[in-house]
Protein backbone atom coordinates (compact mmCIF):
# COMPACT_ATOMS: atom_id res chain seq x y z
CA UNK A 1 0.00 0.00 0.00
CA UNK A 2 1.49 3.33 -1.07
CA UNK A 3 1.24 5.67 1.89
CA UNK A 4 -0.59 8.89 1.21
CA UNK A 5 -2.03 11.53 3.51
CA UNK A 6 -4.25 14.53 2.83
CA UNK A 7 -2.50 17.19 4.91
CA UNK A 8 -3.60 20.82 5.21
CA UNK A 9 -0.67 23.28 5.21
CA UNK A 10 0.39 24.51 8.64
CA UNK A 11 -0.50 28.11 7.79
CA UNK A 12 -4.10 27.08 7.11
CA UNK A 13 -4.62 26.60 10.85
CA UNK A 14 -2.00 28.72 12.61
CA UNK A 15 -0.27 31.93 11.58
CA UNK A 16 3.49 32.03 12.10
CA UNK A 17 4.46 34.56 9.39
CA UNK A 18 6.80 32.08 7.75
CA UNK A 19 8.65 31.44 11.03
CA UNK A 20 8.88 28.05 12.74
CA UNK A 21 5.80 27.23 14.84
CA UNK A 22 6.64 27.64 18.50
CA UNK A 23 4.52 25.85 21.09
CA UNK A 24 5.59 26.23 24.72
CA UNK A 25 4.12 25.72 28.13
CA UNK A 26 4.33 23.70 31.29
CA UNK A 27 4.65 19.94 31.25
CA UNK A 28 1.56 19.91 33.49
CA UNK A 29 -1.04 22.48 34.44
CA UNK A 30 -0.58 22.43 38.22
CA UNK A 31 -2.51 25.43 39.56
CA UNK A 32 -4.50 28.20 37.92
CA UNK A 33 -1.82 30.72 38.90
CA UNK A 34 1.10 28.61 37.63
CA UNK A 35 -0.61 28.01 34.28
CA UNK A 36 -1.82 31.58 33.72
CA UNK A 37 1.46 33.18 34.81
CA UNK A 38 3.55 30.82 32.63
CA UNK A 39 1.24 31.51 29.68
CA UNK A 40 1.43 35.29 30.27
CA UNK A 41 5.25 35.27 30.40
CA UNK A 42 5.49 33.08 27.30
CA UNK A 43 3.02 35.27 25.38
CA UNK A 44 5.08 38.33 26.36
CA UNK A 45 8.07 36.89 24.48
CA UNK A 46 6.18 37.63 21.28
CA UNK A 47 7.57 34.55 19.51
CA UNK A 48 5.29 31.87 20.95
CA UNK A 49 2.33 30.89 18.75
CA UNK A 50 0.55 28.43 21.06
CA UNK A 51 0.66 27.29 24.68
CA UNK A 52 0.87 23.65 25.68
CA UNK A 53 -0.16 22.09 28.98
CA UNK A 54 -0.59 18.50 30.09
CA UNK A 55 -3.73 17.87 32.09
CA UNK A 56 -3.99 14.09 31.67
CA UNK A 57 -0.54 12.63 32.24
CA UNK A 58 0.22 9.00 31.41
CA UNK A 59 2.77 8.09 34.09
CA UNK A 60 4.95 5.01 34.11
CA UNK A 61 3.95 4.01 37.64
CA UNK A 62 0.86 4.73 39.70
CA UNK A 63 1.25 7.20 42.51
CA UNK A 64 2.98 9.90 40.43
CA UNK A 65 1.11 13.12 39.66
CA UNK A 66 -1.34 12.19 36.90
CA UNK A 67 -2.52 15.66 35.95
CA UNK A 68 -5.32 17.88 37.17
CA UNK A 69 -7.82 16.59 34.60
CA UNK A 70 -11.05 18.46 33.89
CA UNK A 71 -10.44 20.87 36.78
CA UNK A 72 -7.64 22.50 34.74
CA UNK A 73 -9.78 23.15 31.67
CA UNK A 74 -11.36 26.39 33.00
CA UNK A 75 -7.78 27.63 33.77
CA UNK A 76 -6.95 27.05 30.11
CA UNK A 77 -9.98 29.13 29.13
CA UNK A 78 -8.71 31.94 31.36
CA UNK A 79 -5.13 31.70 30.07
CA UNK A 80 -6.43 31.77 26.50
CA UNK A 81 -8.52 34.85 27.17
CA UNK A 82 -5.59 36.60 28.87
CA UNK A 83 -2.98 35.83 26.21
CA UNK A 84 -5.05 35.50 23.05
CA UNK A 85 -2.99 32.41 22.21
CA UNK A 86 -4.40 29.02 21.19
CA UNK A 87 -3.91 26.03 23.50
CA UNK A 88 -2.64 22.52 22.88
CA UNK A 89 -3.42 19.57 25.15
CA UNK A 90 -2.58 15.85 25.09
CA UNK A 91 -5.56 13.53 24.69
CA UNK A 92 -5.53 9.77 25.12
CA UNK A 93 -9.19 8.75 25.28
CA UNK A 94 -12.51 9.75 23.65
CA UNK A 95 -13.56 11.40 26.97
CA UNK A 96 -10.42 13.57 26.91
CA UNK A 97 -11.33 14.70 23.39
CA UNK A 98 -14.91 15.47 24.34
CA UNK A 99 -13.85 17.53 27.36
CA UNK A 100 -10.99 19.32 25.59
CA UNK A 101 -13.26 20.39 22.75
CA UNK A 102 -16.03 21.39 25.17
CA UNK A 103 -13.64 23.82 26.88
CA UNK A 104 -12.28 25.22 23.61
CA UNK A 105 -8.85 23.56 23.42
CA UNK A 106 -7.54 24.47 19.95
CA UNK A 107 -4.92 21.81 19.18
CA UNK A 108 -4.85 18.19 20.33
CA UNK A 109 -1.84 15.96 20.50
CA UNK A 110 -1.58 12.20 20.77
CA UNK A 111 1.21 11.16 23.14
CA UNK A 112 4.02 8.69 22.51
CA UNK A 113 2.50 6.14 24.87
CA UNK A 114 -0.78 6.28 22.96
CA UNK A 115 0.71 6.15 19.46
CA UNK A 116 2.16 2.71 20.28
CA UNK A 117 -1.32 1.22 20.63
CA UNK A 118 -3.38 0.96 17.42
CA UNK A 119 -6.59 0.12 19.38
CA UNK A 120 -6.14 3.30 21.37
CA UNK A 121 -5.35 5.40 18.27
CA UNK A 122 -8.42 4.00 16.49
CA UNK A 123 -10.65 4.95 19.44
CA UNK A 124 -9.27 8.47 19.23
CA UNK A 125 -9.80 8.54 15.45
CA UNK A 126 -13.42 7.40 15.90
CA UNK A 127 -14.02 10.15 18.46
CA UNK A 128 -12.60 12.72 16.02
CA UNK A 129 -14.97 11.89 13.15
CA UNK A 130 -16.74 15.05 11.98
CA UNK A 131 -14.51 17.31 14.13
CA UNK A 132 -12.28 19.95 12.52
CA UNK A 133 -9.30 20.32 14.87
CA UNK A 134 -5.53 20.17 14.36
CA UNK A 135 -4.04 16.92 15.67
CA UNK A 136 -0.34 16.45 16.32
CA UNK A 137 0.94 12.90 16.72
CA UNK A 138 4.05 12.15 18.75
CA UNK A 139 6.30 9.36 17.62
CA UNK A 140 5.70 6.04 19.38
CA UNK A 141 7.96 5.33 22.38
CA UNK A 142 9.79 2.61 20.43
CA UNK A 143 11.52 3.30 17.11
CA UNK A 144 8.84 1.85 14.85
CA UNK A 145 8.15 4.13 11.89
CA UNK A 146 5.23 1.99 10.65
CA UNK A 147 3.43 2.48 13.96
CA UNK A 148 3.84 6.27 13.65
CA UNK A 149 2.64 6.20 10.03
CA UNK A 150 -0.29 3.96 11.03
CA UNK A 151 -1.41 6.51 13.61
CA UNK A 152 -1.45 9.23 10.93
CA UNK A 153 -3.42 6.97 8.62
CA UNK A 154 -5.99 6.22 11.33
CA UNK A 155 -6.45 9.88 12.32
CA UNK A 156 -6.49 11.00 8.67
CA UNK A 157 -9.05 8.25 8.03
CA UNK A 158 -11.37 10.09 10.43
CA UNK A 159 -11.24 13.10 8.10
CA UNK A 160 -8.64 15.14 10.05
CA UNK A 161 -6.39 17.03 7.64
CA UNK A 162 -4.78 19.54 10.03
CA UNK A 163 -2.05 17.09 10.94
CA UNK A 164 1.47 17.39 12.27
CA UNK A 165 4.15 15.08 13.69
CA UNK A 166 5.93 15.68 16.97
CA UNK A 167 9.37 14.07 17.11
CA UNK A 168 10.15 13.47 20.80
CA UNK A 169 12.82 10.79 20.48
CA UNK A 170 12.80 7.07 21.23
CA UNK A 171 13.31 4.78 24.15
CA UNK A 172 15.60 2.01 22.90
CA UNK A 173 17.22 0.70 26.06
CA UNK A 174 20.59 1.91 24.72
CA UNK A 175 22.72 4.05 27.02
CA UNK A 176 22.60 7.72 26.00
CA UNK A 177 23.09 11.13 27.55
CA UNK A 178 19.56 11.92 26.36
CA UNK A 179 16.33 10.76 27.98
CA UNK A 180 15.01 9.66 24.58
CA UNK A 181 17.41 9.03 21.70
CA UNK A 182 16.54 11.39 18.82
CA UNK A 183 17.22 8.93 15.94
CA UNK A 184 16.88 11.81 13.48
CA UNK A 185 16.79 9.31 10.64
CA UNK A 186 13.23 8.37 11.65
CA UNK A 187 11.98 11.90 11.10
CA UNK A 188 13.95 12.16 7.85
CA UNK A 189 12.20 8.99 6.66
CA UNK A 190 8.81 10.38 7.70
CA UNK A 191 9.53 13.62 5.82
CA UNK A 192 10.61 11.66 2.73
CA UNK A 193 7.39 9.65 2.88
CA UNK A 194 5.08 12.62 3.52
CA UNK A 195 6.86 15.83 2.42
CA UNK A 196 3.72 17.85 3.14
CA UNK A 197 3.44 16.72 6.79
CA UNK A 198 4.70 19.37 9.26
CA UNK A 199 7.28 18.02 11.73
CA UNK A 200 7.71 19.65 15.12
CA UNK A 201 10.74 18.89 17.27
CA UNK A 202 10.29 18.19 20.98
CA UNK A 203 13.76 18.83 22.43
CA UNK A 204 12.39 18.67 26.01
CA UNK A 205 11.50 14.98 25.87
CA UNK A 206 14.59 14.09 23.87
CA UNK A 207 16.85 15.91 26.32
CA UNK A 208 15.41 15.09 29.73
CA UNK A 209 17.78 17.80 30.96
CA UNK A 210 17.76 21.55 30.41
CA UNK A 211 21.43 21.56 29.39
CA UNK A 212 20.78 19.66 26.15
CA UNK A 213 17.80 21.68 24.93
CA UNK A 214 19.78 24.14 22.80
CA UNK A 215 21.71 21.58 20.79
CA UNK A 216 18.60 19.49 20.13
CA UNK A 217 16.44 22.47 19.15
CA UNK A 218 19.22 23.66 16.82
CA UNK A 219 19.50 20.24 15.22
CA UNK A 220 15.73 20.20 14.60
CA UNK A 221 16.02 23.61 12.93
CA UNK A 222 19.02 22.45 10.89
CA UNK A 223 16.89 19.60 9.59
CA UNK A 224 14.18 22.08 8.50
CA UNK A 225 11.62 21.10 11.09
CA UNK A 226 8.47 23.22 10.93
CA UNK A 227 8.51 24.08 14.59
CA UNK A 228 9.34 23.25 18.19
CA UNK A 229 7.33 22.26 21.24
CA UNK A 230 9.17 23.04 24.47
CA UNK A 231 8.25 22.64 28.13
CA UNK A 232 8.46 25.86 30.10
CA UNK A 233 7.47 26.57 33.71
CA UNK A 234 7.65 29.72 35.86
CA UNK A 235 9.51 27.76 38.55
CA UNK A 236 10.97 24.70 36.80
CA UNK A 237 12.76 23.18 39.80
CA UNK A 238 9.47 23.02 41.68
CA UNK A 239 7.52 21.51 38.75
CA UNK A 240 5.31 18.56 39.67
CA UNK A 241 6.48 16.61 36.60
CA UNK A 242 9.57 16.71 34.34
CA UNK A 243 11.33 19.30 36.53
CA UNK A 244 14.82 18.67 35.07
CA UNK A 245 13.86 19.39 31.48
CA UNK A 246 11.70 22.52 31.86
CA UNK A 247 13.06 26.05 31.66
CA UNK A 248 11.70 29.44 32.62
CA UNK A 249 9.94 31.51 29.95
CA UNK A 250 12.86 33.98 30.12
CA UNK A 251 15.45 31.24 29.54
CA UNK A 252 13.29 29.88 26.76
CA UNK A 253 13.15 33.31 25.12
CA UNK A 254 16.95 33.48 25.26
CA UNK A 255 17.22 30.05 23.71
CA UNK A 256 14.93 31.11 20.85
CA UNK A 257 17.00 34.25 20.28
CA UNK A 258 20.12 32.15 19.80
CA UNK A 259 18.59 29.61 17.42
CA UNK A 260 19.90 29.75 13.87
CA UNK A 261 16.96 29.38 11.52
CA UNK A 262 18.17 28.16 8.17
CA UNK A 263 16.29 28.26 4.90
CA UNK A 264 15.77 25.27 2.62
CA UNK A 265 17.10 27.16 -0.39
CA UNK A 266 18.78 30.45 -1.24
CA UNK A 267 17.74 32.71 -4.15
CA UNK A 268 21.42 33.72 -4.64
CA UNK A 269 22.46 32.73 -8.19
CA UNK A 270 26.15 32.33 -7.39
CA UNK A 271 25.32 30.03 -4.48
CA UNK A 272 22.96 27.99 -6.66
CA UNK A 273 25.65 27.63 -9.34
CA UNK A 274 28.25 26.45 -6.81
CA UNK A 275 25.76 23.92 -5.37
CA UNK A 276 24.95 22.58 -8.80
CA UNK A 277 28.63 22.05 -9.65
CA UNK A 278 29.30 20.15 -6.43
CA UNK A 279 26.11 18.10 -6.81
CA UNK A 280 27.21 16.95 -10.26
CA UNK A 281 30.49 15.76 -8.73
CA UNK A 282 28.66 14.04 -5.87
CA UNK A 283 26.44 12.25 -8.41
CA UNK A 284 29.55 10.97 -10.14
CA UNK A 285 31.22 9.83 -6.89
CA UNK A 286 27.98 8.11 -5.81
CA UNK A 287 27.84 6.27 -9.11
CA UNK A 288 31.37 4.98 -8.53
CA UNK A 289 30.47 4.01 -4.97
CA UNK A 290 27.53 1.90 -6.13
CA UNK A 291 29.58 0.36 -8.97
CA UNK A 292 32.30 -0.51 -6.45
CA UNK A 293 29.78 -2.17 -4.21
CA UNK A 294 28.50 -4.21 -7.13
CA UNK A 295 32.09 -5.19 -8.05
CA UNK A 296 32.74 -6.31 -4.45
CA UNK A 297 29.56 -8.36 -4.43
CA UNK A 298 30.45 -10.18 -7.62
CA UNK A 299 33.82 -11.15 -6.09
CA UNK A 300 31.97 -12.44 -3.02
CA UNK A 301 29.67 -14.45 -5.30
CA UNK A 302 32.64 -16.06 -7.03
CA UNK A 303 34.18 -16.88 -3.65
CA UNK A 304 30.89 -18.44 -2.49
CA UNK A 305 30.95 -20.86 -5.41
CA UNK A 306 34.41 -22.11 -4.35
CA UNK A 307 33.26 -22.31 -0.75
CA UNK A 308 30.15 -24.26 -1.72
CA UNK A 309 32.19 -26.78 -3.71
CA UNK A 310 34.66 -27.21 -0.83
CA UNK A 311 32.11 -27.06 1.99
CA UNK A 312 33.66 -24.03 3.71
CA UNK A 313 31.57 -21.73 5.88
CA UNK A 314 30.68 -18.18 4.84
CA UNK A 315 31.51 -16.46 8.11
CA UNK A 316 35.29 -16.14 8.65
CA UNK A 317 35.80 -14.42 12.00
CA UNK A 318 39.54 -13.71 11.66
CA UNK A 319 39.25 -12.30 8.14
CA UNK A 320 36.23 -10.20 9.18
CA UNK A 321 38.13 -8.79 12.17
CA UNK A 322 41.06 -7.90 9.93
CA UNK A 323 38.81 -6.25 7.33
CA UNK A 324 37.03 -4.17 9.97
CA UNK A 325 40.29 -3.01 11.57
CA UNK A 326 42.15 -2.17 8.36
CA UNK A 327 39.18 -0.33 6.82
CA UNK A 328 38.64 1.66 10.02
CA UNK A 329 42.31 2.60 10.10
CA UNK A 330 42.17 3.65 6.46
CA UNK A 331 39.06 5.71 7.12
CA UNK A 332 40.77 7.37 10.06
CA UNK A 333 43.73 8.34 7.88
CA UNK A 334 41.30 9.83 5.37
CA UNK A 335 39.57 11.83 8.09
CA UNK A 336 36.41 9.76 8.19
CA UNK A 337 34.48 9.24 11.40
CA UNK A 338 35.54 5.68 12.46
CA UNK A 339 31.98 4.67 13.35
CA UNK A 340 30.86 5.54 9.84
CA UNK A 341 33.28 3.07 8.30
CA UNK A 342 32.39 0.47 10.93
CA UNK A 343 28.63 0.79 10.36
CA UNK A 344 28.99 0.66 6.57
CA UNK A 345 31.22 -2.41 6.77
CA UNK A 346 28.81 -4.18 9.12
CA UNK A 347 26.08 -3.76 6.49
CA UNK A 348 28.40 -4.87 3.67
CA UNK A 349 29.51 -7.91 5.67
CA UNK A 350 25.93 -8.98 6.45
CA UNK A 351 25.00 -8.57 2.79
CA UNK A 352 28.07 -10.60 1.82
CA UNK A 353 26.97 -13.41 4.13
CA UNK A 354 23.41 -13.22 2.81
CA UNK A 355 24.65 -13.42 -0.78
CA UNK A 356 27.00 -16.32 0.04
CA UNK A 357 24.16 -18.19 1.78
CA UNK A 358 22.06 -17.78 -1.34
CA UNK A 359 24.85 -19.10 -3.58
CA UNK A 360 25.86 -21.91 -1.24
CA UNK A 361 22.31 -23.17 -1.00
CA UNK A 362 21.92 -23.21 -4.75
CA UNK A 363 22.88 -26.23 -6.81
CA UNK A 364 26.31 -25.99 -8.54
CA UNK A 365 26.08 -25.28 -12.25
CA UNK A 366 27.10 -28.45 -14.11
O1 LIG B 1 36.83 -13.76 3.04
C1 LIG B 1 35.85 -14.50 3.12
O2 LIG B 1 35.95 -15.71 3.41
C2 LIG B 1 34.51 -13.99 2.83
O3 LIG B 1 33.55 -14.74 2.95
C3 LIG B 1 34.30 -12.57 2.44
C4 LIG B 1 33.87 -11.71 3.59
C5 LIG B 1 33.76 -10.29 2.95
O4 LIG B 1 32.67 -9.90 2.49
O5 LIG B 1 34.76 -9.61 2.89
C6 LIG B 1 32.54 -12.17 4.06
C7 LIG B 1 32.38 -12.96 5.17
C8 LIG B 1 33.50 -13.29 6.06
O6 LIG B 1 33.12 -13.28 7.41
C9 LIG B 1 34.68 -12.48 5.80
C10 LIG B 1 34.84 -11.73 4.67
The coarse silhouette is elongated
Which range best describes the helical content: under 10%, 10-25%, 25-40%, 40-55%, 55-70% or over 70%? 40-55%
Count up the domains. 2
Q: What would you say the CATH architecture of the largest domain is? A: Alpha-Beta Barrel
Main beta-sheet annotation:
8 strands, parallel, barrel
Q: CA-to-CA gap between the ends?
A: 42 Å
Structural class: alpha/beta
Could you tell me which ligands this complex binds, including any ions or cofactors? Answer: prephenic acid
Oligomer: single chain
Radius of gyration (CA) equals 25 Å
Residue ranges: pLDDT <50 for 5 or more in a row?
none
The CATH topology name of the largest domain reads TIM Barrel
Cross-sheet strand order for the largest sheet: 1-2-3-4-5-6-7-8
CATH class of the largest domain: Alpha Beta
Total strands: 8
The CATH H-level homologous superfamily of the largest domain: Aldolase class I
Work out the helix count: 13
Mean pLDDT over the full residue set: 96
SSE order, as H and E? EHEHEHEHHEHEHEHHEHHHH
EC number: 5.4.99.5
InterPro entries: Aldolase_TIM, Chorismate_II_sf, Class-I_DAHP_synthase, CM_dom_sf, CM_II_prokaryot, DAHP1/KDSA
Enzyme class: isomerase
Keywords: Transferase
Amino acid sequence: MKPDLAVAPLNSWIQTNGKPLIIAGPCSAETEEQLCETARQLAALGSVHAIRAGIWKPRTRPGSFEGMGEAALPWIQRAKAETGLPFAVEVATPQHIELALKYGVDILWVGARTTVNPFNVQEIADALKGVDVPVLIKNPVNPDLALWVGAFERIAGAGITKLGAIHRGFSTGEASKYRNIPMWQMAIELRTMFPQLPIIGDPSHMAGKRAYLNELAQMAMDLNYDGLIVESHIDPDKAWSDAAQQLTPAAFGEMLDHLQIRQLESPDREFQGAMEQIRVKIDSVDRQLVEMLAARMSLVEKMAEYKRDNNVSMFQPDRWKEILETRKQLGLKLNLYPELVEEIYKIIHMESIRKQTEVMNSAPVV
